[in-house]
Amino acid sequence: MALSPEIQLRYWAIAALVLALILWALGPALLPFVTGAAIAYFLNPLVIRLTAIGLPRPLAVTTLMASALGIIVLALLLIMPAVVAQAVQFTEATPELLSGLQETISARFPDIAAFENALDTSLLKLGEAIRDRGAALAEGVWRSVSSIVSAVVFLVITPVVAFYLMLDWPRVVAGVDDLLPRQHAPTIRALAADIDRAIAGFVRGQVTVCLILAAYYAVALGLVGLQFGLAIGVVAGLISFIPYIGAIVGGVLAIGVALWQFWGMPASIGAVIVIFAIGQVLEGNILVPRIVGNSVRLHPVWLLFAVSAFGMLFGFTGMLIAVPVAASVGVLVRFGLEQYQNSALYKSTTPPPESQDDPQA
């Protein structure tokens, strides 16, 4: 017996609610599985290319996993220790940086001397708070990463999940396809293809853009001689997937440190400003149009809301799934609007019947 659209909508709403409750309750436990599924999804096109040239799928999956793990381990050994060390040094030096900034402002702008005490107190409190919270955050992150349990759960389970999902990807897709209602299967397949293109176009492209920007900012700030330039550049690049946030956070940190370090050296301060200006030009006019493309159509405001909401509700696991969910919802909304615009309700031009008043009434 066919279910009415109202009943189907209720079932979908219940399924979405159950999924949200599972994510909320099991977010930390699901993290390695979600990460493994994301890795499998991103690497599967490369597996398809390797199998197309004659490699058996198990060998192609093994080769890609070994290469990916090698790159990750190399990055952790060569880059992350320096980034973590600079981040810790930056948080510890924040009170000194803000104190120097306060002294510079008082010396260069004596007209605001009346506010010196309030400014001094506010900056010192801000510096101490950042140092205390930053040190606690750095220590907490380092403890969680270096703990044996977290290392075993994340660094072992994630590659295993990714490996087996990539190995069985065709069977997983075929199994899901067999469960589709036959009447609506073509429409669901078309929507799934659109969602796949949106997610792949944005996520894979944006990850590439973030890595390029992280390398550019880190190298450029290092060449200028900016203290903590490596950490600031890497952070600014890696969080550039959130529109405007990477440039704002990185630019404020870099220019603030440059004002403290290079005061009286306008050329060096200007060089730091130019680095971020060039980065924005590269990101907005070259990298994003060429790598991400314009077909994704994810509005920055919608993306900001998705990352913020899912991060607040489901933690780091929610942030991982925020972009795919945002892309999927965008595709479904566009499909719904298209159906509405093709419907008789939208296209009807028949005027409503006019009421004829009885003159004898």
Secondary-structure map:
Layout: H1 5-52, H2 57-78, H3 80-108, H4 116-146, H5 148-167, H6 169-178, H7 185-224, H8 229-238, H9 245-261, H10 266-292, H11 300-341, H12 344-347
What report would you give on this structure?
By secondary structure, the protein is an all-alpha fold. Among the domains are: 23-169, no CATH class; 209-290. The chain has helices at residues 5-52, 57-78, 80-108, 116-146, 148-167, 169-178, 185-224, 229-238, 245-261, 266-292, 300-341, 344-347. It is globular and about 75 Å long. The model has no long low-confidence stretch (mean pLDDT 75).
User: Count of helical segments?
Assistant: 12
Estimate the global geometry from the Cα principal axes: globular
Largest sheet: none
Strand element count: 0
Order of helices and strands: HHHHHHHHHHHH
Global mean pLDDT: 75
Helix-residue proportion: over 70%
Taken as a percent bin, the fraction of beta residues is under 5%
Low-confidence stretches: none
CA radius of gyration is 27 Å
The chain-level structural class is: mainly alpha
Distance between the termini: 52 Å
Q: Can you describe this structure in just a few lines?
A:
Helix content is about 85%, strand content about 0%. The chain contains twelve helices and no strands.
Keywords:
361 residues, 12 helices, single chain, mainly alpha
